[in-house]
């Protein structure tokens, strides 16, 4: 047995990012163990729509195709969106992006998170060198003898060649490794729900920048159903949570300017605080942070999960190349290369998202006029729009 396969790569976190990483590595015949603290998997259910939906870009779709999980995703529920309509609630500025402008069948897909996770789990079961353990997490770890020694929550021990932290925004492994992170609360809360639209959503992702914050309607597989994400101040979110369905539907319809007629909630409403995080380092000794453990951002651009999947592909490609060359997966130069690539790209995305948020949450009249004029100008500039669309899809220029 060669050095690279003597101990498995251990992934802490059995969510989408952790499972995607495991599938990529297992496909390359690398030994992988996934540890998930929850007692069981969150399986997709045909009779219930998961409120947790994601806007998956074409680049993320291509990654799932590479893994072999895309077939499992499309066998469940998903909704392609072929256009995106964005407008300023304080003026006439409006912009429409369409898939036709870049010769693509769609801009992306709105998919239930549990549908992707279930498809990844199904794919992982095909790999003989991959395993997943539920109800177990990493309690402690130390590095020595060219490996990382893990103490698990069930008091068992596990040696690993590399520990990958995919354990979410409040990453315990990031904290245990002593990796600091910048944290900025947006002073806003995301309100989510599934709603019924009186008029069909036209396979369009809609976003209106209201005075309170951006309101997004994401089209679901039923042409009269959408998932909403509304970013509002915390006290406003509390008021909306307290309203009955009819009253909230009225508020929501007015906030959306009745563009899809009457909007009515079909599910319970949930809320969570919006916080930007950026780890000062994405790596430690025989440790790599992925996804939300490394960074989180405002949902207005819908790029959080897609950014995490870019982390996955970058790290996995580095590890697969190392395995083919017989190089230790915990080799510092390999991990530094991953960090250099991904931290710079995440920093750029965080900066862009923060800039958009500041642009649309400041209300001096000169700024309102300028941003409305800018949106109208961009809407008439086909080449610039096409570049933005391709970048948002993760396809480059």
TrEMBL record:
Any GO BP annotation: ubiquinone biosynthetic process
Gene Ontology molecular-function annotations: FAD binding; monooxygenase activity; oxidoreductase activity, acting on paired donors, with incorporation or reduction of molecular oxygen
Keyword Flavoprotein carried by entry: yes
Keyword Protein transport listed: no
Pfam families reported for this sequence: FAD_binding_3
Cofactor or coenzyme needed: FAD
Subunit details: Component of the Ubi complex metabolon, which regroups five ubiquinone biosynthesis proteins (UbiE, UbiF, UbiG, UbiH and UbiI) and two accessory factors (UbiK and the lipid-binding protein UbiJ).
Name used for this protein in its record: 2-octaprenylphenol hydroxylase
Organism: Permianibacter aggregans
């Amino acid at each position: 047995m060669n050095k690279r396969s003597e101990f498995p790569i251990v992934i802490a976190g059995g969510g989408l990012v952790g499972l995607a990483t495991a599938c990529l590595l297992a496909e390359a015949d690398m030994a992988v163990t996934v540890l998930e603290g929850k007692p069981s998997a969150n399986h997709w259910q045909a009779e219930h729509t998961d409120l947790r939906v994601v806007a998956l870009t074409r680049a993320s779709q291509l990654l799932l195709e590479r893994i072999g999980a895309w077939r499992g995703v499309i066998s469940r529920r998903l909704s392609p969106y072929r256009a995106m309509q964005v407008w300023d609630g304080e003026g006439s500025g409006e912009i429409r992006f369409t898939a036709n402008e870049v010769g693509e069948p769609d801009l992306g897909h709105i998919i239930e998170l549990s549908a992707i996770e279930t498809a990844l789990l199904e794919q992982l079961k095909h790999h003989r060198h991959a395993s997943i353990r539920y109800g177990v997490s990493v309690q402690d770890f130390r590095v020595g003898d060219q490996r990382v020694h893990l103490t698990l929550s069930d008091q068992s021990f596990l040696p690993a060649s590399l520990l990958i932290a995919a354990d979410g925004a409040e990453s315990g492994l990031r904290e245990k490794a002593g990796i600091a992170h910048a944290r900025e609360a947006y002073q806003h809360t995301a309100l989510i729900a599934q709603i019924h639209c009186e008029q069909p959503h036209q396979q369009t992702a809609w976003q209106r920048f209201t005075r309170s914050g951006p309101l997004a309607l994401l089209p679901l597989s039923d042409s009269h159903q959408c998932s909403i994400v509304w970013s509002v101040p915390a006290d406003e979110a509390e008021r909306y949570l307290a309203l009955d369905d009819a009253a909230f539907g009225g508020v929501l319809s007015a906030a959306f300017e009745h563009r899809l007629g009457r909007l009515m909630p079909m599910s319970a409403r949930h809320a969570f605080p919006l916080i930007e995080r950026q780890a000062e380092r994405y790596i430690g000794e025989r440790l790599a942070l992925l996804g939300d453990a490394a960074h989180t951002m405002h949902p207005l651009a819908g790029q959080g999960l897609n950014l995490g999947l870019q982390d996955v592909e970058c790290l996995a490609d580095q590890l697969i190349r190392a395995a083919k060359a017989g190089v230790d997966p915990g080799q510092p130069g390999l991990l530094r290369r991953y960090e250099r690539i991904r931290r710079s790209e995440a920093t750029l995305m965080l900066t862009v998202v923060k800039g958009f948020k500041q642009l649309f949450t400041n209300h001096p009249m000169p700024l309102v006029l300028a941003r409305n004029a800018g949106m109208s100008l961009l809407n008439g500039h086909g080449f610039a729009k096409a570049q933005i669309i391709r970048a948002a899809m993760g396809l480059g220029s």
